[in-house]
Amino acid sequence: MAASSNDPAGVNPRGRKHEKPGGGPRFRFGSPLLYLGLVVLGLVLFRNMFQEAGYLRVPYSAFKQAVREGRFKRVQIGPDVLRGYTSEVIGQPARNVDPTTSPWTSNRVEDPELTRLLDEKKIEYEAIPGSGLGESFWIWVLPLLLGFVFWTWVMRRMGAGGLGQGPQSVMSFGKTRARVQAEADTGVGFDDVAGIDEAVDELREIVEFLRTPEKFRKLGGRIPKGVLLVGPPGTGKTLLAQAVAGEAGVPFFSLSGSEFVEMFVGVGAARVRDLFAQAQAKAPCIIFIDELDAIGKTRSAGAVGGHDEREQTLNQMLAEMDGFDARAGLIIIAATNRPEILDSALLRPGRFDRQVLVDRPDKRGRERILAIHAREVKLGPDVDLRSIAARTPGFAGADLANVVNEAALLAARRDHTAVLRTDFEEAIERVVAGLEKKNRRISEREKEIVAHHEAGHAVVGWLLPHTEPVHKISIIPRGLSALGYTMSLPLEDRYLMSLDELRDKMAAMMGGRAAEELFIGEISTGASNDLKQATDIARLMVRDYGMSGEVGPVSLAEQGSAFLQSAALPEMRSYSEKTARMVDAEIRRLTLEALERARSVLRANRALVEAVAARLLATEVVEEPELVRILGPKVTPARAADPDEPAEAMGAWGESHA
User: Fold this and answer.
1) What structural domains and CATH numbers belong to the chain?
2) Which has the closest alpha carbon to 397: 644, 218, 241, 193?
3) Residues with catalytic roles
4) pLDDT tens digits, 274-316
């Protein structure tokens, strides 16, 4: 994408154009050419002043009398100067001027008698060249010029600016590094955004104001100064901001929050001022700040040592957002995935007036996103984007783009003429479970443990009524440490889960550990991730969802938005030690209960577990159709309540609820 300079069209930060009289180069204060000329002049003056240091300067008459008296051992005759050396050390001026030992110098006079006197006194003499402009150029100007060029290159490399702006000097730290894009440069419109229709509808109003501001002004309406895009990573916040600029056809300033702050104090605030000055000169326009939390964190109260650089930058941004007139058509769009840490002054009305949630897409949204990313991909006749969307629950837009790209790469590696369904399935597994490690060799004993572990997951998940259907089981190692995996896919997008669903989900996670105990006779480290996930669910049930009879319907957790629950944020406990012990006991009880339910299901269905494990040892991969053949139809809540259900499938679930 093309970009323009920081001072487009000769406009300075105050909005006045630079005047260029005469059309030619001019010297101004701070010009590098002016500095170069001053340095050269100073060096020439220095040479002229000190080149006679150590010589005794005398009139010509005194110099000629000294020749008559035979004082000199040697004389040098130049175009404008005479030099006579009295000591035995010829050609070296003395450090201190001494009339008896120092060399003599005088201005030359056209006198033919001088050479006759030198011959009579048998004094050695020679002619010396003059110090003309050519000599001065090679001795002084050329080395200085080369040094200046090298210094300028180093400074430009040290202060290189943003994309398309050209290099910046080391003294331009206060200039903004925002990339400026015009309408044609973004290349993105609302047609390129899918799966976040609600967010698009919210921002269409911004586009309408930038196109026809009179429509709002005549009714007294005021467009929001700032729009904050909030959502998990990869959901398309940056793409949405570019689409707004592309639809409105206005300049688009784009930069990240971390680009404001440098190692020097005051640089961040200066860049904020420069950014808003340039944006107001180009209004109407859009400023997009990605990762706003880099400079917008909550300011600490009573911090020792005063404000730090980040807080100064935030204070300057707050002042600038208050200072500009929204009627000028300057709109700020910012994006963050950590809204809970932003300073409250940023979120008040008059700054970021509107917050737009950019969430993960549903099934229809994922299908539309896949269609957009598959525009340039040659799809095979067996590819159904709807089924691929159904197999990617929870994927964000960036994840889906990665799936399409991985599928295309796999098809090219396999010399396919088009991207087939198998390529997409392998790409999804790569994104979910990691790269397949075909060359990793595991012993037969470990392979048997992994087969029974995954069979335990599959059988418990298949026979409990409130779990998702098992789509695929594999004992092929993938990723960094996964020796096998069981892939379950929901039948539809879910936004709520009941108590029974959470209990069944935990039991299915414990199925691998229970299978190792019952069929191998010992436990291994392979269940570490299962235990972590089950414990996390139990913790949420007790502390967040009020699903513990002992603790009661209270919420004890302090955390931010729903999509930040897995973020590594410091935990702040607001309850007593007695309550904490009660919470720990309830979490342990729920996990032990889930393990016991898994044991009950596996004890009642030992033959099914052995059948699935044997099939895994033979083929390494078992798909859903083969699971239906081995285990029968998937147990559902309605079928589990049917009195005509076979006792073997019913017994485990009924016993677990007893």
Assistant:
1) 52-130 (3.30.720.210), 179-299+309-357 (3.40.50.300), 365-433 (1.10.8.60), 444-559+574-656 (1.20.58.760)
2) 193
3) 454
4) 888 888 888 788 888 988 888 888 876 544 444 577 788 888 8
